[in-house]
Amino acid sequence: MQRGRSLRPLALTLILAAAPAQAGAQSYWSHDELGDQLRSLANASDRATLTEIGSSMEGREIWMVTVAAPGGAPLESRPGLLVVGNLEGDHLLGSTLAVEAIRYLLAQDGQDEEVTRLLAESVVYVVPRLNTDGAEAFFAATRWDRTANARPVDDDNDGRTDEDGPDDLNGDGAITLMRVRDPAGAFMVHPDAPRLMKRADAAAGETGSYTLYWEGRDDDGDGFYNEDPPGGVDLNRNFQHAYPYWEADAGVHMVSEPESRALMDFVIAHGNIAAIVTYGHTDNLVTPPDARGALSEARALDLPAFAAASLEGIHDVGVFRSGGGGGFGFFGGGPRLRGAQPGRDNDPNAGRRPSTTVHRNDVDYFATVSEAYREVTGIESVGIHRAPQGAFFDYGYFQFGVPSFSTTGWGMPSAPAEEGEAGQARAAAGARGGRGSGSGPLDLQLLEGLEASGVEAFLDWTPYPHPTLGEVEIGGFLPYVTTNPAPEMLATLGEGQGRFLARLGGMLPRIRIVETDVTAHGGGVFTVEATIENAGYFPSALQHGVVARAVDPVLVQIQVDPEDIITGDDKSATVQRLEGSGTRHSFAWVIRGSAGDRVEIRLRSEKGGHDTVTVRLGGDR
Amino acid sequence: MKQNITTLAVVTILTLAGPALAPAAAQQERGSDPEHTLPLTWDRWLDHDEIGERMQLMAETWPEFLSLQSLGQSYGGREMWLMTINNPATGSELEKAGMFIEANVHGNEIQGAEVVLYTIWYLMENYDRIPDVRRMVDERVFYLLPSVNPDGRDYFLDGTGSGARTGHVPVDSDGDGLFDEDGPDDLNGNGVIEQIRKYVPGEGDFRISHDDPRIMEPVPPGEVGDWVLLGSEGLDNDGDGRVNEDPVGGYDPNRNYGSDWQPNYIQGGSMDYPFQLPEARAINDFMMTRPNIAGFQSFHNTGGMILRGPGMAWYGDYPAADIRVYDELGENGERILPYYNYYVIWQGLYTVHGGSIDWTNDGLGVVSFSNELWNGGQYFNSPLLQEQQQDPDSPISGQRSRFFFDDFLEFGDQYVEWAPFDHPVYGAVEMGGWKKLSGRVNPRFLSIELFHRNMAFTLYHADQMPLMTMGEASVERVGGDVWRVRVPIRNERLIPTVTARARENRIVRPDILSVEGNVEIITAGWVDDVHRPGPTQRIDQAELDRILIRSGAPGRTTRVIEYLVRGSGSLTVEYDSQKGGTVSTTVRLR
Fold this sequence. Notes:
The complex is a heterodimer. In chain A, 21% of the residues lie in helices and 21% in strands. By secondary structure, chain A is an alpha+beta fold. Among the domains of chain A are: 31-153 and 231-282 and 386-411 and 498-508, 3-Layer(aba) Sandwich (Aminopeptidase), CATH 3.40.630.10; 511-616, Immunoglobulins (Immunoglobulin-like). In chain A, strands 1-2-4-3-9-11 form a six-stranded mixed β-sheet, sandwiched between helices. In chain A, strands 8-5-13-12 form a four-stranded antiparallel β-sheet. Chain A starts with 30 loop residues before the first helix and ends in a 5-residue tail after the last strand. Chain B has helices at 2-16, 48-61, 111-126, 131-139, 150-158, 278-288, 320-336, 345-349, 356-362, 383-390, 400-409, 447-463, 500-505; strands at residues 66-73, 79-85, 98-103, 141-145, 195-204, 206-208, 216-218, 225-232, 293-301, 305-308, 341-344, 367-373, 415-423, 427-434, 468-470, 474-479, 482-491, 511-527, 537-538, 546-549, 557-577, 581-588. By secondary structure, chain B is α+β, with helices and mostly antiparallel strands. Chain B is elongated, with a radius of gyration of 29 Å. In chain B, helix 3 (111-126) packs across helix 12 (447-463). Chain B has three domains: 40-71 and 98-156 and 251-374 and 457-463, Zn peptidases (Aminopeptidase), CATH 3.40.630.10; 172-248 and 385-434, no CATH class; 468-588, ntegrin, alpha v. Chain A, domain 3 (Immunoglobulin-like, Sandwich), CATH 2.60.40. Classes of the chains: A alpha+beta, B alpha+beta. The interface between A and B is large, with 74 and 73 residues. Strand 10 (325-326) of chain A pairs antiparallel with strand 21 of chain B.
């Protein structure tokens, strides 16, 4: 708090019931402070190990905390739970939740049954802050909602990089918006909420009278305001599923950034990761995928979108479609094109496209986890919910093939008047898509909710003489307030996430050899049977994990020479997908052997653990 | 060790080549070719060490033009040798359009590396002799990477050659948690992974062909054969009951690039994310630092194709303006390369997601081709032979043709006759089959033609990269100190400075037209037609002394810029393109 740059609560009205005081987060942490937190957690427990999976563009460590009880199975063969926070630079909440969740797990080990079993049988990998450089902007003298990492990017492709970022014209340490009276403008003051704006609807007889910009000057004199700020790439738009190609903030290609690459290299080297939880701007936990596997509609604030509209058309500047003779007559019809002829593809698989919705056989798992999430955390609605494009959690399901989740980490703040059933109904409706953009219900709900809970969330519009735009007004949502709750809520929110991880950990597949049997047929011939069981909730592989060939089949191998197997299962027998909740599968081999021989049977489930049982061939009849 | 060999080789070659070092003027052709500076031979396939030695030798022979570097190491620790050809006397590298030529991304597709080496050698040997060669070397910069997959190349050339397409990053192909633990085994130690057949009288489904006893043919329905085929030579190395189920690598190194990359279940062998492979990454890291690269060629085999993207049909074809450029290059390519067809990848070959030339076109804005070297039709190089091929009774019909040409042109060198073998699992069997060089690699005696024609196509491609020039400026006083200045700006060649796809994807920096001088620019506009009066197309940009041209300079087109300026003295107009060079002219206002 002494930084004077954390969020400013005026009073304490928490959405969640106040938790007992504990030594949890009291404010958001800089990189150094985060490192101190992690070191002290790791130093105080033999169940937490602090390592680095890489470093950022600017050389900051990307921390990884491995949480597991020592002894027992090697970590790489245990079911793994991966937690990643703060992929978006402005979502500092995510890193705090990750740390608080670790704190909860360590504190509850040996106390809480779920936690104790999770740490004994599984392993939790936590990357609290992937975007270490982007998060550091929270502690800068001038603050703006910076999601990107530190990669210099020529956002407007004009040959100059990072040359026109926002400027703190009014000197309040916060980048907000400018609104300018403009007869050609598309926006008007919101009739129901004078601080907010709406897009004028000509069909309803409304006339636009304002244009909005981010606060700042046209530093490079190109006629556009703040079109190329410092950085960077939004790491949660840099992964392989539904990747937004050729958008400046998505990186030059998938996994182009040192931070995203460090995470990917860790993940692909840890095939035991059986579920993923990320903290970020997208939600699929409060509102799970619907019956058709689709995520809920995005919910974005209008004000920033209106400011972004001032850059529309920037990439059309300098596109010349005519001029000059010669050439081929490119523009007046030229020779016949010798392109490909549609319908003559000679590859029968060419039409196959990647899945974009959750497989129908997997939907119920997401619904169950969502129910558990809402129950455990008490979070019933979300504020901002961004449509995922190139998001890491989507990679986790659609390509890595495991249950994979994202949460904004806190609930939609609600105004007091809206509390009770009506408020919940409205919030729930909002969380499931609500109304489209335009009149700005989300802006209003969020503003009222934040202010009701005592957060100073908005800078009222204040006149300012702008050097090139003339008289403008500066105002709007303060940086970070719409995506990060007041620090007073952090400890409680973090504990809720810890409880959720414990619950989710209990759902991981746990596959063991539960029964074996040997029948002697005489003549040195035996039947060996083995039965495996999945005691977890999740199957050994989600249906999409099988479709995507992302998850290895469960392998059960009898350790005899292949030539000694007469009939029955193959030496290396497999089952593609073993459902959870006690589902069993049996294997049988008829083999040659000698009474008294010891035969080992090995089980390998990539996500559900390893097991080995030795049977003894009984005496001949 | 390698260093010693190289030094020795240099000494030897230079001694042999002594006469060639005499002044060029003295060796006017007297009925024969001039001596080569570096008399290299082109009739054998080189492994990675030999490629490195040859490149060092050339770099030492022509140090003025050649610089050799390693882009990094392959997974197996082999250097990725890259030769840059640049004449510093005509400008630095980044000022000139660059042609990047690579080969051998698939370990078994070897001959492209020799095409690349031949190209370096040919350009250097003939720089002083052939004016067109000299011009191309002087105008352009060439980046030449003979082997993208040196691990695969050595595995192919120095080993049995089986399954050499992949790179050598270990992959668990059978999902058992182990990596590359069970590949094929050369059981009889003859250096060839052969096919296995077993004699099972009356119980088999294959029989020996009446046409040629080397050919196994399936028996017609209702009949029985005496033979079964048991796959390729190998063992159950890991004792899991399966044979050869997890050989080295197990992916496609040309599916690991960043445009339309797809996960494994859509595009087999793509790995986990684009540029995960050290080799693809090293190339891309280099190309990212060379925005001047405007042409790209990736040599593969086989089939005789000049391929362009897109690799898949989903996203539709390239913009029409780009297709016209590709068509002209590709159709001339078909003339330069008989037996080669100009195709779109997904239609003429098969669908490819995440291939290298889709990335260079879509992600780097580079006009790119991939040639599939060698077409078996080149054996049947006459109408008579082509006719005989269609005759079922001819000795060159169907499968027999392969044996015929091996027998008569290679003297049987490429085939291993069936021979008895006592297999540890299958018992008494016979093994035999084609050697690794047969089929996809051209016979050595046809190499030079293949090398030269493919080089000629890439040089033609390189020659058509954008090349900016400025015509003579004109100045006219409008009144007082206001002047009208016109400057013609021309791209002399076929390829635009910014392709239409590059502009759509915003991945090439726009061209920038700038003015320096003690003047105020009142307006700027493009002249529609220099021969007719009329208003110019006004340029509506905030910075008229730095005009962005996102659509670049189209091929073989002159545009005339007109400035209305107020001032005196002189002004300098500069046109700066990343792929077509930078040109400028200084105009005096008088």
